[in-house]
């Protein structure tokens, strides 16, 4: 962040105003502040709507007197999460300002149930900022998993990769700048010149989403199988959400992030195993892949 | 509203808290208060996110330096509305508590891009409240329009209709109550008993929507062709939105509510007419229906 | 079905035409035919797009050469379902014609990711057809579950309920008809008269949805906790889907319908139990409700 | 297209099968065939659901007997389009296979109401194919419009731009290939290596959308203000849709593509002008920008 940007944030934080809306103390502390992610990225909360009580309030509208029997908000929120009631969580909303590499943005945007305003490279000139992985993150292709990573590269191979990433970014941006320059020339249209820029250039957007869909995003992207470069954004958001709606986040951690889905065959196997039967992949009815994943759940 | 409900609202309004978020003064005055609609319905604002400045702020993220040339927020918002830029308007969100007859709710829910928590008649017992039209609103079927209304019914016909609506509602609710009663009997499941209730019974829900989709709803439902019983809700919401985001609402009024869509043939006819040519339905290339609607736009 | 409707269906089925699109043999046998549900309802397939091979074809576009290593379509479809890959299933689409009571339609429409054209009671006159439960389905309110059903009502209580449902429907429709009649009177607007009709009247719609969202619908509505009157529609659709995309349906049955979700605490308990530890609700960290549901999964 | 791909397409077209579904003759002629766009891109129809008759059939379910008075399908489709009835058009669906540059894909994906399966550069290796504009398309930045194009570049400036686009693409791909190579080295993970590739590289996806949302896409992207590189895809699709649903496409052309939206002020000005009044920007109540656009509609 530049000193100018930091000053802007502090100015935005300097002037609280009275409101009659639900206020989340934990979230007010985050507002506008940048949580740094990767080498030049960040996540900032720009606005939010609702808190834990807004979730139970909506549930009580739906379920009426019945829900009043549930003694407290925590129990009700856990019940709603456990039973896949999605609409009460949709009553909370968050608006984030995110700066992220284009290849991460391309994965992110596949989650369609959100509102987005992205910086437009048709209208405006992109900044010279590129994601260059830290050496430890320069992972080899996994030898067992088509979409996974192995160990970090080392020695000359690592050095060569880093050099290329740096040099190609620099050259691409130099040419981008030269192509659009209007000093002594017409200047290529920005909407065309941008095509020369690689996918590690940073873009930024406002991203607004309700809590139910945010949880869905976080379940997939804070997962160990997600690409590291998007996972770190998801992890930064998890911390923010934990401060915003602590009860809902705790339920999410227990029932989604830390939970597991068993198939009908998996349920059957657990029952047989608990009755003392020795079950093997061969007698489980599962394929080798399924069995390996099943054992990862029950036998850790 | 019962005195108890009024007291609840005043209590909710009694305790402003500081926030760093964008605050709309006009909207704070509405928060929690009930705007009465029809005989027992209402619209209440429960929460909101953003204001006029949030729209231009999002646009400026997208369009970067280019938008800074536009001298002020009003001009930018009008530009965005005129050119169908929808995403900046999606950055504002509103959450309403609405009480409405079931047949109105059934029309309303066809707008899918919103979040809803409706009172559940599986869990809870519905109140004895039915919409009975005022005598002036007891309209006859239009003789020219399959879905329209004509003049109000009069005399015996009107009286008979009102009697039936009142008596059938009362009887249906009496039987509903008797069917679910557990005094001296098992009591029919609520999820079954509700099927005896007519479509003029009131239900309620929390409805949360972004400003772009709300404008789309209002354009269709505040229109003269919308059924009166949903239009009055749309009109109540129009007043709220005018106080919430006055610049956006003014642009919406000019470009959507008060505007008109011309077909390619319509554009061609306007051009010919402005050059002094006399154009008739026969020479317009339009069908009779299209021509009638076209003349309603240009010749009023 | 009237003889006229049956003749229409047979006429629609009489004239196969050549197509180059993917064809599902199982689905062709269903096209246009009515599967009867409840006393007057039905589900009919009007159109469909794709088959099992369309799912794997889309997956192979996404995952490229990697997916070719998976030896066959069945294994790939099971992998996609197990790992929550939703987009390949979105490549199949189905269009249904459904006739259903209004109170069922109101539950159904809460699933927003679908396209709907419903019969309009503003334009047209509804038919005199009401859902009257069979005696065995006249369930009492559950004494343990706010939204559940208990045993069937019996004796006088049952008789009285059935009489009321029948009589009130009949009277409401008689008055509806009399109110809109234009013989010797103006006739109340249809959009108003419909408000007198109870929620057990039948409506109908075209409902179009992709396979991923259909599976989501079926998981919730073919579940034992769904209201019986919507569950029977879900069950009729399950049979249709099983014929349309047999491999996908089998995976859905195993991983969704028959599977179970364990929380982090649930996973931990299963591991402890498999190591021989005796775990009780008190030592599980779960609430009583959670424990009861957990035992329902592992101990059946 | 390689000879192998052409053979695949011919094979897919060689074996028509009988179906009872609605068949569009015009669309069958397109199935699987590649419509070339830009230097290496294409659009291919993979599947479709429905035809013109499916639109009116759905409308007739909704509007019942009322719509039978409309003498023919063409009149009804025009009526539906003119009055913004969207749901009957949602009853048709199309699935396309598209190959397109990444910067075009990034614009395209902003339309969220569609299903997408994109080629994954995490799993698979991208091909060495880049969009290099034809010389005539190498437009300068517009001097009047932040997002527009001016005249084509010429001479040395054009030559230099083309050289850079070609050289930088080639070098970026060479390094991409070298980074992931596993000959004598570990090989960088594909999910990382892809970040070196510029936005003019081609990707491909399956894109499935309903006709209403496709029309919305085409209205924005076949417009003169859309970037040329996406407009050519929209134009290719327009031709396909014209063959698929000729009546709906004609109505779309008349009411959307060729039509114009007037604001309330614009309507007022047209009325005044038709009454013989001389209206200027100053007396119109419009800003200069609005007036210029208004004159573009009425005075061409």
Automatic annotation (TrEMBL), chains A, B, C, D:
Protein name: Flavin-dependent thymidylate synthase
Pathway the protein contributes to: Pyrimidine metabolism; dTTP biosynthesis
The protein's Enzyme Commission number: 2.1.1.148
InterPro entries, alphabetized: Thymidylate_synthase_ThyX, Thymidylate_synthase_ThyX_sf
Alphabetic keyword roster: FAD, Flavoprotein, Methyltransferase, NADP, Nucleotide biosynthesis, Transferase
Quaternary assembly: Homotetramer.
Cofactor details (free text): Binds 4 FAD per tetramer. Each FAD binding site is formed by three monomers.
Any one GO molecular-function label of the UniProt entry: thymidylate synthase (FAD) activity
Stored PANTHER family: FLAVIN-DEPENDENT THYMIDYLATE SYNTHASE (PTHR34934:SF1)
Cofactor(s) it depends on: FAD
Residues at which FAD binds: 87, 110-112, 118, 210-212, 216
Family the UniProt entry places it in: Belongs to the thymidylate synthase ThyX family.
Entry function: Catalyzes the reductive methylation of 2'-deoxyuridine-5'-monophosphate (dUMP) to 2'-deoxythymidine-5'-monophosphate (dTMP) while utilizing 5,10-methylenetetrahydrofolate (mTHF) as the methyl donor, and NADPH and FADH(2) as the reductant.
Binding-site residues, dUMP: 107-110, 118-122, 194, 221
Major enzyme class: transferase
Organism: Jannaschia ovalis
Gene name of this polypeptide: thyX
GO terms of biological process kind: methylation
Residues forming the catalytic site: 221 (involved in ionization of n3 of dump, leading to its activation)
Reactions mediated catalytically: dUMP + (6R)-5,10-methylene-5,6,7,8-tetrahydrofolate + NADPH + H(+) = dTMP + (6S)-5,6,7,8-tetrahydrofolate + NADP(+)
Matching SUPFAM superfamilies: Thymidylate synthase-complementing protein Thy1
């Amino acid at each position: 962040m530049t000193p100018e940007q930091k000053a802007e944030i502090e100015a935005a934080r300097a002037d609280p105003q009275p409101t009659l809306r639900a206020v989340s103390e934990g979230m007010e502390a985050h507002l506008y502040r940048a949580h740094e992610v990767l080498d030049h990225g960040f996540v900032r909360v720009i606005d939010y709507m609702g808190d834990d009580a807004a979730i139970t309030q909506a549930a009580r509208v739906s379920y009426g007197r019945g829900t009043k029997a549930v003694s407290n908000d925590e129990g009700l929120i856990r019940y709603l999460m456990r039973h896949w009631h999605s609409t009460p969580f949709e009553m909370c909303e968050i608006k984030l300002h995110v700066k992220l590499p284009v290849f991460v943005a391309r994965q992110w945007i596949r989650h369609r149930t959100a509102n987005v305003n992205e910086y437009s490279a048709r209208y405006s000139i992109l900044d010279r900022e590129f994601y260059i992985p830290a050496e430890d993150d320069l992972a080899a292709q996994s030898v067992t998993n088509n979409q996974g990573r192995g160990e970090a590269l080392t020695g000359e191979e690592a050095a060569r990769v880093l050099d290329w990433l740096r040099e190609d970014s620099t050259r691409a941006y130099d040419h981008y700048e030269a192509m659009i320059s209007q000093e002594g020339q017409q200047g290529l249209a920005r909407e065309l010149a941008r095509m020369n820029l690689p996918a590690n250039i940073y873009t930024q957007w406002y991203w607004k989403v309700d809590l139910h869909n945010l949880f869905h995003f976080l379940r997939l992207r804070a997962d160990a199988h997600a690409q590291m470069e998007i996972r770190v954004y998801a992890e930064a958001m998890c911390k923010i959400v934990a401060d915003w709606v602590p009860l809902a986040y705790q339920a999410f951690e227990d029932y989604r992030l830390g939970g597991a889905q068993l198939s009908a065959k998996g349920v059957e196997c657990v029952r047989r195993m608990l009755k003392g039967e020795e079950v093997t992949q061969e007698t489980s009815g599962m394929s080798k892949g399924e069995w390996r994943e099943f054992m990862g759940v029950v036998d850790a």
